[in-house]
Specification:
Blueprint: H1 17-28, H2 44-61, H3 66-79, H4 82-108, H5 118-127, H6 133-157, H7 161-189, H8 194-225, H9 230-258
């Protein structure tokens, strides 16, 4: 699946936490214009087709991020990378902006937001399963990969100018969210042996595959209206997954050149500082 032209940006193997913090600060100052004054611009058929789905995704975006922040705080203290904690704080604020904007869109079209949904509760429990930054990020990355496909479908599912602009902004943000989380996974997993890393990646694939099935079950009406069959949705998710982990591999290679291996086992949540030498 091709990304819009305004996503185009030359990737580098690994950015420092300071660079990510600066990205989030700059992004907050350069948001796309959302034409809220267009008012309620969904027709009845569009409203029926997307209402429940957008309610579900809005609930998923509305997390306060406390568990993620606590895990990031432990990592920052262990690694000395305080900039990572600042970047995570801004990342959480960006996700909360998505939730606020989606809630505003729903209310504009007389659709009440929901506090939670069954898939949202499952994702939250997965993130809290183990007090680990790596697991929190792995679950988040799965959600963000699928979100890239979902918001592309949602953007095409209606003629709403408000929703079109909102999806463009969220897609632009999610592109960077995936890179941010992929690079942090590279830091956390850089010293993992090849066999252990292959097992980790296998579990990540299982998580994505299972999540894809759940998301399709709950949101297939939006995907259909956005022009996606199940096979197209499935392929698009795996293309984004492979792209994200190719980025992780490039970041890991960059780290291995810079960081000498240490003897003995190392905690995956305190492996390397966020700033590359």
């Amino acid at each position: 699946m091709n990304m819009p032209d305004d996503y185009a940006e030359t990737r580098i193997p690994l950015r420092t936490s300071r660079e990510w913090r600066e990205h989030y600060e700059q992004n907050a100052l350069s948001l796309l214009h959302i034409p809220w004054d267009a008012g309620a611009d969904l027709n009845q058929a569009e409203r029926l087709a997307i209402a429940a789905s957008v309610q579900g995704f809005q609930a998923g975006e509305s997390s306060e991020g406390r568990h993620l922040y606590r895990a990031a705080e432990k990592y920052a203290h262990a690694s000395g990378d305080d900039e990572y904690l600042r970047a995570i704080r801004l990342f959480i604020k960006e996700e909360q902006r998505h939730a606020r904007d989606l809630a505003r869109f729903l209310e504009l079209n007389h659709i009440p937001p929901l506090k939670t949904t069954f898939p949202d509760r499952i994702f939250r429990r997965l993130r809290r399963l183990v007090d680990s930054l790596e697991i929190s990020i792995a679950v988040l990355l799965t959600a963000e990969i699928i979100a890239k496909v979902y918001y592309a479908a949602l953007q095409s599912a209606t003629n709403s100018t408000v929703l079109d602009a909102l999806c463009r902004q969220i897609l632009r943000d999610e592109e960077k969210h995936v890179e941010f989380q992929a690079e942090q996974l590279a830091r956390l997993r850089v010293r993992r042996r090849a066999a252990a890393y292959a097992g980790t990646l296998g579990l990540q694939r299982l998580l994505l595959g299972g999540t894809c099935l759940v998301v399709w079950l709950y949101h297939r009406r939006v995907f259909h209206r956005g022009g996606f069959t199940f096979s197209q949705f499935w392929r698009a998710c795996w293309l984004h997954f492979n792209d994200a982990f190719a980025h992780t591999s490039a970041a890991s290679a960059h780290l291995r050149q810079a960081v000498a291996p240490l003897p003995g086992p190392v905690s995956p949540d305190a492996m390397t500082p966020g700033s590359s030498p």
